[in-house]
Amino acid sequence: MKISVGTIRKLREETGAPVIRVKKVLEEVSGNYKRAFEILQKEGFEKAEKRAERATSQGLVTTYTHHSGKIVSVVELLCETDFVARNELFKNLAHDLALQVASLGAKTPKELMGQEFIKDPTKKVEDLVKEVIAKTGENVRVGRIFRVELGE
């Protein structure tokens, strides 16, 4: 069975898995994209679990201000290296987490991780973080979070 380069590229971008692994899994499942995605995502999440104990001394602090100007959130997102902290994927995750905190008001990182993601309720916030871990190869964790609402 011939698997297109476009299919391999798309699946690699979505899962962060190496090209050779993506091709091999697609061949194993006879080109079934959905099944290959599930297998590669599971493998990525397993790798994320193994990285959970690594030190996270780099990262960034991101803010989000609601369009009304009456709610603001601050999220500290941590990773292992400054290189990953400057990565677009990491920055986008930080922004999405700040939006999540402003919208749903989690008080702790643990509470935040258990919430359904506001932009895609089929995913938990924890899944978003694990996806970034799988794609970057580094431990990523949520540090401190704050939410301030006018008059609260």
Q: Any overview of this molecule?
A:
It is a single chain. The protein has a three-stranded antiparallel sheet. A two-stranded antiparallel ribbon has the order 3-4. It is built from seven helices and five strands. It is α+β, with helices and mostly antiparallel strands. β3 (116-117) and β4 (120-124) form a beta hairpin.
Assign a percent range to the helix content: 40-55%
Q: What global shape is seen?
A: elongated
Instruction: Report the sheet-strand fraction.
Output: 15-25%
What is the typical, i.e. mean, pLDDT? Answer: 89
Low-confidence region ranges = none
For the secondary structure, the number of strands is: 5
Written as H for each helix and E for each strand, in order along the chain, the element string is HHHEEHHHEEHE
How are the strands of the biggest sheet laid out side by side? 1-2-5
Q: Report the C-alpha radius of gyration, rounded.
A: 17 Å
Question: What's the tally of helices?
Answer: 7
The major β-sheet equals: 3 strands, antiparallel
Outline of this structure?
With 152 residues, the protein is an alpha+beta fold. The protein is built from seven helices and five strands. 52% of the residues lie in helices and 22% in strands.
